[in-house]
Amino acid sequence: MSEPIFNADVFFNQVCPVCGRPVRIRVNLLGRRVYCQHCGGGFTARDPAVGSGPSTEDRADELLARANDRLERATCGDAGPRFT
Ligand SMILES: [Zn+2]
What we know:
Bound molecules: zinc ion
Oligomer: single chain
Strand content: 15-25%
């Protein structure tokens, strides 16, 4: 009998991206969609210990996407008089 790496009774804390509060999540729900026990917001469970790898790229991509979005909005909304 070999035990699984994750014990189903082990929890970890993840900050809810919706309300910013720590949420207790079972490790066997990693990678699955979970719901915040405070606000009911849904998000994907991720182990913070594992998050130092590819998730940083995700973040960078997300940040870039947001920056581009803001830039586009900024250029669109800034269609006022130009000082040349
Ligand atoms: Zn929440």
